[in-house]
């Protein structure tokens, strides 16, 4: 009588598996080498070759991770401890098993516990043939699959949080009266924003602004919390599924993949002679302690179109100057020594600044810092009309107006280079400025610029009433 016992594969502690496919040809070490090479500044092609995989595999790794390494493969992550078997150790186990070496002998050779080797063979051997066939690649594959701890993302589980994030990323911009503007029609093609072409208009809060503002808007609701990195991963990493990939067009960079930023240097030409320089400004302007000190500049577009920008240094409150083209622009010859018909000549800029800045109380009209551009040739007349003290930056030194340069970069999301800026009317400029002024700012402890300016105005009113009383 034959004895019917269970096969060894049925006695193994690993449950029966449906076939998940074939093991990959690469290992964790290949991935780590690939992302270390990317972090060093190499392209995905060069990094793939350094990692020992094909170039198409390198491209696939880069795009599926959104241009950034997974958290557990980041070059800054602590290396694996000796607690886990490495691929080289599994190769040694496979060789010794093929030779018929005993468990305890293999354990002594690898300086491991015999139970570790025995458990490794039982768990990660191939059992399709009814016995334990140990192969290093298959064993590493099973170990990697068992180590996964997948869980749904917070945005996928929390619909209220997902709607909040989407609205702050892609919500329509509107005037203070609630008049919404769609902006240019832009079709997302799965690639980064094209230089000097129209871009999608939206609220465009950064992930960090969204993450920090949640603490202000929902101080008692701990379910309404998310890190800015989780938002980036939901946008860029395939398989996260919570946010549409096309929402990456609402980010300031407009990149379809996360890439190291390139710094561009802007150069200018000195124009004004014997003008008050930034070194002549009082100390109160530099430390941002006193409100009412402004920085200004022009952002230029197609056909010499322009929009003026004014940024208050303390609150970062922004006002935009409408500079329409003058009558006769593009018709016939331009008269010599006549006005700049493009709309941003010295006289037009002077009038636009005076008209806009005079809407503010006198306490918020202290000084204006500008670069050395021809549009400020009538600065002396502007100073008489507004009472502003006007100072100019050093040549080729845009960083001396850091708040304004940063704001101009934010505005380029709505007014890209190479587009006609004259097509935007006053109400549209007000809507864009309002959207910018109602974003939470890290430098203001996540207050908005409008809230900070409103507090300053109320404080001045209170102090003036107390003084007169």
From TrEMBL:
What are the GO MF terms of this UniProt record?
nucleic acid binding; transposase activity
Family annotation (InterPro entries): Integrase_cat-core (IPR001584), IS30-like_HTH (IPR025246), RNaseH-like_sf (IPR012337), RNaseH_sf (IPR036397), Transposase-Integrase (IPR051917), Transposase_IS30-like (IPR053392)
**One BP annotation, GO:** DNA recombination
Q: Which UniProt keywords apply?
A: DNA recombination
Does the record bear Magnesium in its keywords? no
Please give one Pfam family short name. Answer: HTH_38
Q: Where is the Integrase catalytic domain?
A: 287-457
Region labeled Disordered — which residues? 1-24
Q: Which SUPFAM superfamilies match?
A: Ribonuclease H-like
Alphabetical list of Gene3D superfamilies matching this protein: Ribonuclease H-like superfamily/Ribonuclease H
Q: Name one GO cellular component term.
A: cytosol
What's this protein's name?
Integrase core domain protein
Q: Which species is this record about?
A: Pacificibacter marinus
